[in-house]
Amino acid sequence: MKQLRCQRKGVCSVVDGLTHSDDIADRFADKYMELYTSVTYYDTADMQVIRDELNKSLCDCDVESSVVVRMDDVLSAITHLKADKRDGNFELYSNHFLYACLELALHISFLFSAMLASK
User: Fold this and answer.
1) What average pLDDT values come out for the chain (119 residues) when binned by 10 residues?
2) Alpha carbon distance 76, 70 (integer Å)
3) In-domain check, residue 8
4) Range of the domain at 55
């Protein structure tokens, strides 16, 4: 079996025809803002129903420490994910979790705790 040598690839110095680092940074910022604001419509009533159900399940349940998923648990699980893997169905990639902000892990821990505590 032929062993492949690890070859480091250089950082691309041209992005969308831009070569200056400030211009490239501005392009990424613009694309991020475009992506961040691309979902302009969602049903606020549906979202409120989801919030209410989660709040009710969190408030009404007698949560034992054995059914609480801590943020540290979620962060630990995320560190074991392999990069660039996808679920196959919903275009959800492991990179979404690996490079997300810490707040995502917090919300995932709340969600999992609520799911485990629901009857």
Assistant:
1) 53 76 83 75 79 74 66 93 84 88 90 78
2) 10
3) no
4) 14-60
